[in-house]
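In response to reviewer comment 3 from the previous cycle, which asked for concrete evidence that the modeling workflow produces usable outputs, we include below a single protein chain processed end to end. The sequence was submitted unchanged, and the resulting structure tokens are shown without manual editing.
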Amino acid sequence: MVGAPAQLERSKIQFYHFYIIVNLLPLFYLNTKYILVIDADEEGYMQHIEQPDRHNLFGKPSRRFSKFLCCLVPAVIFTSPSSHAQDSFNFIDAFNQAVDLVQSGLDVIWPGALDPDAFSFRGGLAIGTTPDYVGSDNYRIRALPVIDLRYKNKWRISGSKLLVNAITRDRWAIGPLANLKFGRDEGTNRALMGLGDINTTLEVGAFVQYKTKYNQIMAEYRYALGEGQGSSAQITVSQGLLKNGKFSMAAAARLKWMSDKAMQTNFGVTRLQARRSDAQFNAFNANSGFSDLSVAVIGDYQLHKNIHLAGLVQFGRLMGDAGRSPIVNAGVGNRFQVTSGIGLLFQF
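The workflow returned the following structure tokens.
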């Protein structure tokens, strides 16, 4: 049963969402001179814009949704700060995943912004919120550095992930990858007490990337070297949506698959863990399958030639045994997950 503190926490989160949206919507409306009319060019980039009807606050009915998106994306980038004081490695891992989506979005929003024939850097500081463990309904807000370091078109460090372009041809890139996968501390949330910690480990694998001027597809396979994390695979699709002066938008979607080991470690409950669990979970055997699907919208405003303000809102849903896990649906979590953030980024 969810107690009063948890209910109060969710009420605070809903209040902060409402408060920020209400206060920022007028600002973004007054500063938005144009709205999107869906008219893709030959590259698939929706860039035809028209001036809104000055006699209608939200423009013509067919344009309301586009206008709403332009206002909503930067407005919901914050949620309530959590009452928990302890940092979670799982928070860092989830936030790195979100930042990775932002970086892929910026690549399709501003193609060629980073010189592919030289050393380049994009980074800064981001503030964001995410569930304190995958499947939780409790959110935390933290500030974390954002790092994207590239050398020519040969290798790239993005957050905790290293990519090496072993083969590049036309729009394709293929190569090995390594990723530092952060663990999960049982002290992060009362629902995890008794389940034990999952320590940080290294993942190795490979990737395939196909990229055009305004869209990108990347498939990754990873194998963890420890902590029973097994193997996983994911595919990420990014698409540019709008470019209006200094403001741009992109969308990204990601589908993830996890092996038996990975699913059991992150979402399963052994008999021993069930006996030790403070939440009195039943034993649960989690099998391989698709674990989550997420969709994100990325907004970017160019403050200066090399300075950007970027925001992200990501909505995800846990699938298969990940969504059926006791740590998700036994009254302590939620299979619907939201990650949001904003960052000040510098690039050269």
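The chain is about 25% helix and 40% strand. We consider this sufficient to address the reviewer's concern, and the full set will be provided in the supplementary archive.
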